[in-house]
Amino acid sequence: MGLSLHESVSRRKVPFAPADPTRVTIYTCGPTVYRNVHIGNLRTYLLTDILVRTLRFLGYGTFTAQNITDMGHMHQEQLELGEDKVIAAARAAGKSAREIAAFFTEAYFRDCRRMAFLPADVYPRASEHVPEMIALVLALEDRGAVYGGDGYIYFDVSKVPGYGAFSGTALGEGTPAERTDPEGHRRKRRPEDFVLWMPAEPGREFQWDSPWGRGWPGWHSECAAMAIKHLGPEFDLHVGGIDLRFPHHENSRALATTATGKRFAAHWIHAAHLLVEGRKMSKSAGNEYTLDDLEAGPPSGGKGTSAAEFRYYCLTLHYATPMNFTWEGQAAAARALSRLRGAYAKAAERGTAGEDAAAALRDKFRSAVSDDLNLPRAVAVAHEAPRSGVGGEAARALAAEWDRILAVGLLPAAESGREPEGVPPEVEAMARERDARRRACDYRAADALRERIRASGYDVVDAAEGSAALRKIRETRER
Ligand code: AMP
Ligand code: ZN
What we know:
- By secondary structure, the chain is α/β, with parallel strands linked by helices.
- It is 43% helix and 14% strand.
- The two termini are 44 Å apart.
């Protein structure tokens, strides 16, 4: 299989060697669902999609968990506003935090479908894993790695040998950005210690009973608890944006390894950030673009762009290279994709030709994606094929094969497999499994399957007799 991946801890490219090649386990830090995701988030989630698609292309099996942070306490703005964003948005709209989170979760899945992301196998909700988070804190308590009082529990990083080495952070060099617990700084023994549990302020919708009183968990214990629950205390790959390396990943890892005595993730991959016209995205700068903004086109006027064109734009840069999104660059990417599709349409019409060239290009593509997911090189190979005289069935076969990773529609939908006619067999299989679970009254499993079916772009319409029909979700531009 020969896949090599850059590893963020050792900062080297290493051969990828999963514990079980038939089930490579992957955890991705998912969205906070109190707003639409922006194109920077999507670039990072694209890394997971490329990783999963490449693993499958190379013959591995995969199992992916992506959490949904529906408790809404992760953002720096909270410090400034002193108010939870989910609750603030919910209040403004007269809705409950749960309703708001459910709305933006659906919006997120719709964005994922537009980006042609393969759905994760599970989407754990932070709010549904609080007992697991409490159990994790209790395990840390047993190991003498926590302190606190008055409903606050802190993790003592001095109990973790080599804390900081993971992210290359020297201790005492400054206060890490604290995205939770604005109150708690004063109680901590050192800046790097972080909150595991804190009391609920009046009016907080998301709160639970715990051995330390009524309250809610810190951010870092959320991801660690969900990863351990769904992938076990040792799994293969952990993915996120580079900004999460410290403190979030350093801390998730420190508390997971301390609580379980196991390794946690074997391999960490971080995506470089996306800037817009050379600037950090922000609401105040008005450049925090969503997919809908891309479709609407540049603020100065001009043509909008599709999610597939944005996907293509991202693929022309390596994931570890910062991306500077510009409208000009996006327009150039759209033209290049259109040229590429045109070249394949023409090549497919010719008589079959260039089969030797096709075999050589097939190898080149495979070695590009195997070399730390080098998609820019793979895209260049895709451009090369129609130019090298590959035609007919040979060209169609290459396009279909490569679109299993690129997923930009090299050939018109029905031919390339991006949008097959009828319901895909794996969706049918999930629907059958869901029926079986419902008949067995295992509604939790049935609901989880329904969600995966929805994330694959299909709605389950339950019929009176108990069996369900599948209907493709029509992407409308509501909101
Ligand atoms: P957040 O909702 O801020 O926790 O971000 C969700 C994911 O998107 C995380 O993996 C972040 O690292 C990533 N992310 C946030 N901002 C950007 C950006 N400008 N470019 C690329 N990835 C980002
Ligand atoms: Zn996380």
